[in-house]
Write a structure and sequence with these properties.
The complex is a heterodimer of chains A (about 475) and B (about 110). Chain A contains 22 helices and two strands. Chain A is mainly α and about 475 residues long. Chain A has one domain. In chain A, a hairpin with a 4-residue loop joins strand 1 and strand 2. In chain A, helix 16 runs antiparallel to helix 21. The longest helix of chain A has about 35 residues. Chain B starts with a helix and ends in a 5-residue tail after the last helix. Chain B has one domain: Orthogonal Bundle (Helix Hairpins), CATH 1.10.287.3510. In chain B, helix 1 runs antiparallel to helix 2 and helix 2 packs antiparallel against helix 3. Classes of the chains: A mainly alpha (about 475), B mainly alpha (about 110). The interface between A and B is large, with 31 and 41 residues.
Chain lengths: ~475, ~110
């Protein structure tokens, strides 16, 4: 019984063990590592899909397997598998470190999977740490040591100090209430809600989730980490890590249905600041990955709008938008990896003439950027619509208006990238076309189809996300 | 018995001192120690809460915090050693890198 409930996590753990062995072998072999990782990644995805319907409690109810956690585990397995596919030409990381890269990617995935199932605050903290430490090391593995060490150290220092803050918040919560189980906390929330220690403890605890999501006051690590990490690592941070962070925030705050006043105002302020800071800073960027980092910060703000509604509609919209972010951000990074070739960073100007070098990649980039900017008919538009609609139902009109303004600002810099890809003439007149393997071509087509089809027919995905969100209430 | 609020106050003071150390020092090892002190402040608060509620949960958590702190030190020191080998400094923003950034112009920002 327990094995079936825990199957996706066990598969990822087995993957990690395999790569511990491979990392110890004397001869590094990039192709062997890639094929093993891709095979095991596909297996994990398959196991996660088969485990989509299981339910139950594990480890003295500290760990809950339900529709919500299983949907997110499938998304995480998908994101991890897709990121491994980006590692086929992993030239940014020295070949001796490839096995370690896959090892750390699997431990990070394991941590994130444990995170979305934790309903005990202690389990929650440990899962968060497991994924964070793997990511600090992954950022550090880039071949350009001078750049990567700076970014990795900053990520590490901000991350560990945030987790210390979160730990103190947990201690305050536990000290004030005498329980660390989310279910018990939710059931008796009314009697504690007024206490300042509980509110402070909760806000400090949320800081851990905010850090993962790169929300405004905890965002300073993101631009450097994105820019200086290997492309596939940055893609992992932008997709899997964000999806899990959204799930973690929903678990932590979702059940506080009766919460009002101060908590909602604090979250609304953070959402507004994060959107505005992210979007305004993104306008000034010239590096593509840095632009993606600031766009992530802005999207963290949009996600928080759904979180602070504390309603089923809002939570379902957050799950939907997490899927949208996964697909759109991954498409952007896929284009980046293909265009960059040998793993160097791309300035936005380097995209010039992309529509001639590879029309398919240019189209994929256009659809992904339209999605991020929220232009219909894309998955990003449906996601934003659901988020704003959920917020309006709860009467957050001002918040939605500010978010709309931000969407307009973001349109400017997304279109700037598109202008480079479609209209600007390259400095060197003859640039070689970008060859795409059959598998890559199929993947790109699949992503374009996902972005547009879910934009036209969101009902299927919406049904799934609503089923997931209903578990929370 | 020491009242719960007193031990919480000590923990909060300890946490503040750790945070102060983290924010003011320009030496990576001292910053790491600051984070360590912050983690231990959390552990102290957990022990106090455990005593206050007469439960073992908080004490169990402290064992986990010890492992997290050990991970933090081992990962952190490994990163610092790698940085020190390259630049010969334990400054979070080594002089060698600052020169590099200055040469690169605005690209290094």
């Amino acid at each position: 019984m327990m094995m079936t409930l825990f199957a996706p996590e066990l598969t990822v753990l087995a993957t990690a063990v395999v790569f511990v062995v491979l990392a110890c072998l004397p001869t590094p072999d990039a192709r062997r590592d890639y094929l093993t990782a891709a095979g095991l990644g596909a297996l994990t995805l398959f196991v996660a899909l088969t485990a989509l319907g299981v339910q139950g409690d594990l480890f003295q109810e500290a760990y809950r397997v339900d529709r919500f956690s299983q949907v997110f585990k499938t998304l995480l397995a998908l994101a991890a598998f897709l990121v491994i596919l980006l590692c086929r030409r992993l030239q940014e990381i020295p070949i001796q470190r490839h096995a370690e890269t896959y090892l750390l990617l699997s431990t990070a995935t394991l941590g994130l999977m444990l995170l979305v199932s934790s309903v005990h605050l202690f389990a929650f903290f440990m899962a968060l740490e497991l994924s964070s430490y793997s990511l600090y090391l992954l950022v550090f593995l880039h071949r350009d040591q001078a750049q990567a060490q700076q970014a990795g150290l900053r990520y590490f220092l901000v991350g560990t100090s945030t987790s210390a803050v979160m730990l103190f918040g947990l201690a305050l919560l536990y000290g004030a209430t005498g329980t660390a189980h989310l279910g018990t906390l939710t059931a008796n929330w009314g009697q504690w809600a007024g206490q300042p220690t509980v509110l402070l403890g909760l806000l400090l605890t949320l800081a851990g989730g905010f850090f993962k999501l790169a929300l405004f006051p905890f965002h300073s690590w993101a631009p450097d980490a994105y820019e200086r990490a290997a492309h596939s690592v940055a893609a992992y941070i932008a997709t899997a890590s964000k999806v899990a962070a959204a799930a973690a925030l929903l678990r932590l705050t979702g059940p506080l249905t009766g919460a009002g006043g101060l908590l909602v105002e604090c979250l609304a302020l953070l959402a507004i600041l994060s959107m505005t800071v992210g979007n305004l800073a993104a306008v000034a960027q010239t590096d593509f990955k840095r632009l993606m980092a600031f766009s992530s910060i802005a999207h963290a703000g949009y996600l928080l709008i759904g979180v602070l509604t504390f309603s089923t509609a809002g939570s379902s919209a957050v799950v939907f938008y997490a899927v949208a972010i996964l697909v759109m951000k991954y498409t952007c990074f896929l284009v980046l990896v293909q265009v960059s070739g040998d793993g160097r960073n791309l300035a936005i100007a380097d995209l010039a003439g992309l529509h001639r070098r590879s029309p398919l990649l240019a189209l994929a980039l256009m659809m992904a950027l339209f999605g991020l900017a929220g232009i219909p008919p894309t998955i990003g538009f449906s996601g934003k619509l659901l988020l704003f609609h959920a917020a309006l139902q709860k009467g957050h009109l001002l918040l939605v208006l500010i978010a709309m303004f931000n969407v307009v600002i973001s349109l400017y810099y997304y279109l700037r990238v598109l202008k480079a890809a479609y209209l600007t003439e390259p400095v060197l007149a003859q640039q070689p076309p970008i060859p795409l393997a059959t598998g890559d071509r199929a993947l790109v087509l699949l992503l374009i189809a996902a972005i547009t089809l879910i934009g036209f027919y969101p009902a299927g995905l919406l049904h799934l996300t609503e089923a997931a969100a209903q578990v929370l209430f | 018995m020491v009242p719960f609020s007193h031990s919480l106050l000590v923990a909060a003071l300890l946490f503040g001192m750790g945070l102060f150390c983290l924010l003011t020092r320009r030496n990576l090892i001292m910053m790491l120690l600051g984070i360590e002190v912050m983690l231990n402040a959390g552990a102290l608060a957990f022990v106090a809460a455990s005593l206050h509620w007469q439960q073992m949960d908080g004490q169990a958590m402290v064992l986990f915090i010890l492992t997290v702190a050990a991970t933090e030190v081992s990962v952190g020191l490994a990163l610092i050693v790698a940085l020190y080998r390259r630049t010969g400094s334990v400054d979070p923003d080594p002089p060698a890198d600052r020169q590099l950034a200055a040469q690169a112009g605005e690209g290094g920002v």
